Amino acid sequence: MRCPELSVHTAAAQYGDELAVVEGERGLSFRELSSEVARAQEDLQGRLLPGRRVALVARPDLRSLILLSAVLEEGSVPCFLHPRLPAETRALLAGRVGAAMVPGLTEDAAEQTTVPPAAALRERSVSSASDLALFFTSGSTELPKGVRLSSRAFVASAVASERNLGWREDDRWLCSLPLAHIGGFSVLTRTRLAGRTLVLPEPRMPAGFDPSRFVEQLARRRITLASLVPTMLARLIRAGLAAPATLRAVLIGGAALDPELAQAARELGWPTLASYGLTEACSQVATQRPGAPWAAGSGMPLSGLEVDVADGEIRLRGPALFSGYVPEDAPPFDDDGWFRTGDLGRFDAQGHLLVEGRARDLVITGGENVAPGRVEAVLRGLAEVEEVVVMGLPDREWGEVVAAVLVAPAADPCVLAPKRLRNRLEGRLAGFERPRRVFLASSLPLLPNGKIDRGEIRRRAQGSGFAELSDDLA
Q1: Is 396 exposed, middle or buried (0-12, 13-18, 19+ CB in 10 A)?
Q2: For residue 251, what are the β-bridge partners?
Q3: Separation CA 143–CA 69 (nearest Å)
Q4: Mean pLDDT calculated for residue range 83-97
Q5: CA 283 → CA 56, 275, 336, distances in Å?
Q6: Least confident segment among 134-143, 346-355, 377-386
Q7: Non-local CB neighbours of 2 within 8 Å, separated by 6+ positions
Q8: DSSP string, 59-110
Q9: CA 131 to CA 322: how far, in whole Å?
Q10: By C-alpha distance, which of 341, 286, 351, 274 is closest to 310?
Q11: Nearest 10 degrees: CA dihedral of 330, 336, 339, 345?
Q12: Do 56 and 180 touch, CB atoms closer than 8 A?
């Protein structure tokens, strides 16, 4: 293993019979998990070499956890392919980063094995700054790039998370994201370093998010830490479901958290902590602190990570950052070591980071700049709205107008008509920020990694792919 701190065998020697992972009714101690990984290493003997990139499909299940641990122990570099990607895309991405398709690690490798360049197969000594794993960016408008992350970055990120959240002896962290996602893999690295329990989703559960079933799972499995996106939190609140007593922190990421939604959640006992992060920073950049008074934004930057805002764009520097992209068109860092995230943001007077969306998504309407992320957070706080995407659409008079695509299945269309919607948002958004065009959708198209496909949403909005509400409904 190229990073002893993250080795399951090191964890077994340190934590022994402490519970490492739970899946359904089955639980494995660190010692038992170490034995399972050792057997997987034997099965993979001769197919893995230190420093070699190998494609790996990793779900949030025990089999995937054992396989990826075996790959890491052998010193190979797992290149994580999202389980929802079609086989053709998996092969394309693996080829793009020179990763071998090894039988047993992907469902697609039994018939076809691609071989990376010979240099990648050579054994070599590997330092803590060398690649531990490779993840792919979202790739909403172009083929995704690989993000190279070192063991040093994961350890630094885990230490920063611990300084913010702390650990309790009985902590059990629910991993609801695939292990091929930086958010899922980071839960694994944090719990392994700390000797705490990783809880995997119930096997063979029906697809989709069921609020009642989710709360029952939290309570029955004594979950203390979990992660949600604002849409999931909104569904829990609309259902009037209180948080189980065992839960001590819920990280909310993936989109801005509206203050009114956060307040409603806290009234039902949900200990929400807004968080901002990205793959290039090993997931977390800034997170609210447990027990601190509520404030808008994503909290303070985590320990060890420098966060700055230059010309309205968030930039980062520190040991938790990635090493580079594959393929690399240009160095991702400037001469002073800063990485520009492409995210818009600002700090409030208390130093809390407020994230306002992607710079490339900025809407310029009538000479005014509108950050879609800010508008989405406010709209998401409306009781009728389950999900929302805000964008700019071309307009002869304004250049662009603010448009919103809403998923609100139980809402009366009249309630969401643009004029009435603008009145409801008065005092919370400036006039130029309020949507002038509103579309209703039964669901939003997703990318293979589960993120919202903004490019496709824009195309449908411009091409009458969604039902548009008109002012005369008000």
Answers
A1: exposed
A2: 227, 273
A3: 28
A4: 83
A5: 19, 10, 22
A6: 134-143
A7: 50, 72, 75, 126, 128, 130, 132, 151
A8: -SSHHHHHHHHHHHHTT-EEEEE-TTS-HHHHHHHHHHTT-B--BTTBTTTT
A9: 9
A10: 341
A11: -140
A12: yes
CA triplet 377, 356, 361: central angle to 5 degrees?
Answer: 100
d(CA 282, CA 297): 20
- Give the highest mean pLDDT range of 8-22, 206-220, 328-342, 426-440: 8-22
Pairwise CA distance, residues 133 & 112, whole Å: 23
Phi-psi region of 342 (alpha: psi -120 to 50; beta: other; left: phi over 0): left
The whole-angstrom separation of Cα 115 and Cα 172 is: 39
Q: Give me the helix-helix angle, 30-43 and 62-73, nearest 10°.
A: 70
Cis before residue 50, ω within 30 degrees of 0? no
Task: Please tell me whether residue 39 adopts helix, strand or coil conformation.
Answer: helix
Give the per-residue pLDDT at 122: 37
For residue 427, the one-letter residue type is G
Residues 6+ away with beta carbon under 8 Å from 277: 183, 253, 283, 284, 285, 286, 287
- pTM score, two decimals? 0.81
DSSP bridge pairs for 392: 402
Cα–Cα dist 408/385, whole Å = 5
Classify 269 in phi/psi space as left (phi over 0), alpha (psi -120 to 50) or beta.
left
In DSSP notation, 181-193 reads: SHHHHHHHHHHHH
Among 35-44, 327-336, 381-390, the range of highest mean pLDDT: 35-44
User: How many of the other CB atoms lie within 10 Å of CB of 157?
Assistant: 28
- Dihedral sign of CA atoms 412, 417, 419, 421 in order: positive
Stretch (H or E) spanning 395: strand 387-395
For residue range 310-335, list pLDDT tens digits in order.
999 999 999 999 999 998 877 899 99
- Backbone φ, ψ for residue 318 (5° rounding): 150, 175
- Nearest CA among 144, 195, 159 for reference residue 320: 159
Length of the chain in terms of residues written: 474
Strands (E), 160-302: 172-174, 197-199, 225-228, 249-252, 272-278, 283-287, 300-301
